[in-house]
Design brief:
This protein is of the alpha/beta class and 453 residues long. The protein has helices at residues 28-46, 50-68, 129-132, 228-234, 283-300, 323-334, 367-377, 398-420, 437-448; strands at residues 5-9, 14-21, 24-26, 80-90, 95-103, 110-117, 123-127, 135-140, 145-157, 163-165, 171-177, 200-216, 242-250, 253-258, 304-309, 312-320, 356-361, 381-386, 424-427.
């Protein structure tokens, strides 16, 4: 049976619910009481002792009462017991507050609730029905993106555990945490701007930009652009005129390529799997933050932004502009999760001509560097964004340290090969906490991209 999952967004408090049929089961105490009552009654009859038979009477009454007081088994259309979950994110405090309520507890003596928070070891709570209607707690926000917040299961208990219901189906509550965005003052641009309008100066003559040059009057030039002073200085014929030309404005096309095939954290000991658990920043945390920050900044500048994912051929958002499209791009970035797939592409995904391509990856294997090299060979400006967290090797064994060193050397060789092929590099995480390190790198990339467009 599939475990129901409720996805709760992070922008508002939402409710997730799951219900199950009531299937009461007789507890061991009630069965033992009934068996002892029968044995005492038989013994009293055999030995002709009325007092022994009277001893069986309270046990028989208690067992019968527990049987009669059980809640009726419900059908699919009948009453049921279920869980209500309300999640209230608090982005400022970096935590999520949740409220759990159990419905359909009438006639019960206690409720057994099993709670697992953020994939930790489940905790068993046995509370009264009134207390089960309002259980509260909080969990820290460790990472961005989709994550399993709660895994819940419950059952109802009768008086003295004389009866209990079968455990309800597990309810998974998934929280989607939007990555934080960093304001960026400098933005690299493609080598050539393809758009017809925007906020960036292109190499084409047109309207809206700064002064370009003085040029002889040609068909199509506007009369108001005639520069009479330049005409007086340069004209050699009576009908010769000169006009002042300005540069046209254009927008940039930016494609953000995520490598979500795996997610590694700061602790090298946990690199054996595709996902990173526990505290500390992970590679996908950095990738989501970088992609969301760049998408927000480029959209604010009037540029077109799109998203590609190397782990999924269906997770694509074509480049576009505007606030709604920006939200769509940020949402696609937020929902990226480690896929673990290692399929090799025969060719690089298609991106618009003249687009600036960002590749967010740890570059621990050859797939992302190969795609970046193919895009660069196709004439695109490509910036490889290194999102590998600063590794921590404190708990490694000697042979594990040797293996990590080999992996690090292979990664450094890939980075050198990328630079040799014309791909520019940007490390997103600050090495020593300096606030201006990343900004300085972006300023350098923005200056490097200026030239004929």
């Amino acid at each position: 049976m599939t475990t129901p999952t409720a996805v709760v967004p992070d922008h508002a408090s939402e409710r997730a619910s799951g219900s199950t049929r009531v299937v009461p089961l007789t507890g061991a105490a009630a069965l033992a009481g009934a068996v002892v009552a029968v044995l005492l009654a038989v013994l009293g009859v055999v030995v002709s002792r009325a007092d022994v038979v009277l001893l069986a009477l309270p046990l028989a009454v208690a067992s019968a009462w527990s049987w009669v007081s059980r809640p009726p088994a419900t059908s699919d259309g009948g009453p049921s017991t279920g869980l209500r979950v309300q999640v209230v994110p608090d982005a400022g405090a970096r935590l999520v507050r949740y409220r759990i309520g159990v419905d359909g507890t009438g006639g019960t003596d206690a409720v057994h609730v099993r709670v697992s928070v953020l994939g930790t070891t489940p905790r068993d709570l046995v509370v009264t029905p009134g207390r089960a209607a309002d259980l509260t707690g909080e969990a820290p926000i460790l990472h961005s993106g989709p994550q399993l917040l709660l895994r819940l299961q419950h059952r109802l208990l009768g008086q003295d555990a004389a009866w209990f219901t079968a455990p309800a189906r597990e309810l998974d509550v998934e929280q989607v945490v939007t990555p934080r965005t960093v304001p960026l003052a400098s933005l690299p641009l493609p080598h050539r701007l393809q758009g017809m309008t925007g906020n960036h100066q292109s190499a084409r003559p047109g309207d809206g930009g700064d002064f370009r040059d003085v040029h002889p009057f040609a068909p199509g030039d506007r009369l108001r652009r005639i520069d009479w002073r330049a005409t007086a200085r340069r004209a050699r014929l009576a009908d010769e005129l000169f006009v002042r030309r300005t540069s046209a404005l254009a927008d940039a096309t930016v494609v953000l390529v995520l490598d979500s095939r795996d997610d590694v954290g700061e602790n090298v000991e946990d690199w054996t799997g595709h996902t990173a658990d526990g505290e500390g920043v992970t590679s996908l945390d950095l990738a989501r933050e970088a992609a969301a920050s760049l998408a927000t900044s480029y959209a604010a500048a009037g540029d077109r932004v799109g998203v590609q994912d190397l782990a999924s051929q269906a997770r694509v958002v074509q480049p576009g502009g505007g606030a709604r499209h920006r939200d769509r791009v940020v949402r696609a970035v937020t929902l990226s999760r480690p896929a673990g797939s290692r399929f090799a592409r025969l060719r690089a995904p298609v991106v618009p001509a003249g687009a600036l391509v960002y590749v967010f990856s740890t570059f621990l294997d050859d797939e992302a560097p190969r795609m970046a090299t193919l895009w660069r060979a196709g004439g695109h400006r490509v910036i490889a964004v290194d999102v590998l967290p600063t590794p921590r090797t404190g708990g490694l064994e000697p042979h594990e340290r040797v293996a990590f060193r080999l992996v690090a050397l292979e990664r450094e060789e890939r980075m050198r090969t990328l630079q040799a092929s014309g791909v520019e590099l940007l490390r997103w995480q600050e090495r020593h906490g300096g606030a201006g390190e990343r900004a300085a790198a972006l300023r350098t990339l923005a200056r490097a991209g200026r030239g004929p467009r």
